Amino acid sequence: MAGRAFMQLSAVLAFLASFLVLLVDIEAAVTVSVGPAQTVLKENTVVLQCTYSVTPAAQVDIITWSFTSSTESREVVTMLANTQSVFGTYENRASITEQASLRIENVGENDEGTYRCTVKVLSQGSADTKSVDLTVLVAASAPTIVSTVNSAARAGDDLTLTCRSDGGKPLPTLTWFNGTQPMDAGVGEPTTNEAARQVIRDLSLSPVTRFDDQANFVCKADQGYPDQLDVQTAEQVLDVQYPPVASISSNPNSSVKETNTLTLTCVVQSNPDPSQIRWLKVSGDSADVLQTGLTTTYVIPKINRSQNGTYRCEASNGVIPRDRESDGQATVNIDVYYAPKISSSFVQPFEVNFGSSLPAVTCEAEGNPTPNLQWVQVGSGRTFNNPLSFATMTYAEDGTFTCVAAALDFPKDTVNVTVNVIGRPDIIGDSPAAREFMEGKTAQIVCEIQAKPRPSRVEWFLLDSSDNRAIITTGGPYRILQENLPKGMKSILQINSMKPEHSGRYVCKATNTYGEDEQYFDVTLQAEDVVTTARGLYTDNGSDTTLVIIIVVVVLLLLLLLVGIGLMLAHKRGLLPCKGEPETGKGGRDENVTNEFSIEMADKDKSPTAPLPSRVESSQYIPTPLVAASYEARLSGASFGEPRSPVGQDKPDGKKGGYRDEDGLNNAELDLSSRKPASRRPIVDPKDTMDMDYPTLRQQTTSPYV
After folding, report:
1. What does the mean pLDDT of the chain come to?
2. Which residues pair with 191 in a beta bridge?
3. Which domains does the chain have, with CATH numbers?
4. What pTM does this model have?
5. Residue 500, number of CB atoms within 10 A of its CB
6. Biased-composition ranges for Polar residues (predicted)?
């Protein structure tokens, strides 16, 4: 019975032991972690990260790294009890470091693939494995550029540049640049050969132009790993031959003044340089050779107007031009400026009858640029357009006219033409002409006559009411004066001591061999008023003395008025001492001295009087001029109306203190006939101020009158 029980207990213990072992297997574990995929340049060193953790803590027994690619699998390295075993091609290159990481030196292209890190704990019967990829980079060789043209290209040719890169892993991307600017036009699609590790990309220039000469075309190869592989470049500077392209510059410019020096420069662009430069002067379809050689400049000292025209330079370098732009020729038109010169000649003088027209007189001149022509009348300065013509000639157009030719800053050229206007007299002014004169003054009626020849006879007439003419001669109140003028004469009828009977219509008549002209003058006396009299001071031989006297008197009166106003203002402001006021050392009033006068305030009850204080401030006391005026009024027995309430007497409410009624000073009466000089005492007795309220006292003492 006991044996059977022992056997059962042993079975239970065995079951518990097996359960505990199973429980330990479930909880025991090892966890492996690896780093990111790695890229490494061929022949460099790489570390593939691998770490682990064991739960519960236990000794790791085995660490193994293995390799797998699309073509093979192999063991790399195994570490058992801290002893590493390296296999195959990894010998002397691979090792386990940093816990479980794999270090591979001198990496080759065959090392590219997937690596597996495995960690085992035998005591727990647990293991874990993780994988990490390795990519091996191979630097490409420097790109090369190949041209379809072995030597220099010629403008107009088609040219292809080929960029090639070999040996790169991965294959690079090829990009074309013109200098620093990326190019799209003419760039072909890349051609790749993975097996040969080769990539090609073309640049087509169709056609090549002179602007491509010395252009720097760059091919860049980029494998996409800037941190490990540099971007490589290849450059090609083009040598493009093209015929000369010429232009001309002129100094000072293409428009030059005569006698100046002109320098022409042929500016040439070509590849190769010009072998010959010719200068020619073109005239229509022909040209005269002026200079041949390699000199780019042509100098004309002291150029003259005959050298005006078209100049051409021709450059050649052996490259046959394919278009007109590159024919190596350039032209310039030279415009030689020279001073104006009048070429017209005139038969002089021009004689024209008064009132008729002047045929066009045309002035012509040579010059470059074309001169500006203008006519100027000598003396008057009046200007007229060219040609010179007048529809109706008057004596104002008689005289000398100058044709002026002007251009730029050249000296002007001139020629004079004389125009003689002959004919009947022409009296200047409207007819009838009104004239007014003052009675008793000398009157002069002026008749100005233009005529050529001068009038042989000038007559004056006075018309009666029937328009009958009475000739006037020198004598009595009349006197006839004459004065010759450049284009005629002036006749003056002078009337001494103008009287009413001298009023009327006068006629001035001038006659010469070509005819006659006359003018009416209506003569009247001026009205007798102030304005007309003042006007007479300026006209009709009146004297200016009276006007001067009036002006002087008016100025003196204004000065006196200004002085009076100034004195009044000074008095009002207390700038001058007044009668009865003592003066201070500063010309002002003593603020502590009262006026020596007092006002006797009389009313029906014969109230006592109070002294008048001197003015301390203009707002507190009666102005001194008013006191003086009041004093004089009192002496003359004048009364200012109803008596006012005296200063200092009791108020109706029984209180003491100074006050006044609404009428102020106008209700006061001055009485100083029987008074001695008043004692100086304040308007308000100091002992009475206790009975007054302060605002009332302030109002009284700030009033302009007491």
Report:
1. 80
2. 200
3. 30-137 (2.60.40.10), 141-238 (2.60.40.10), 243-336 (2.60.40.10), 343-422 (2.60.40.10), 429-526 (2.60.40.10)
4. 0.53
5. 8
6. 697-706
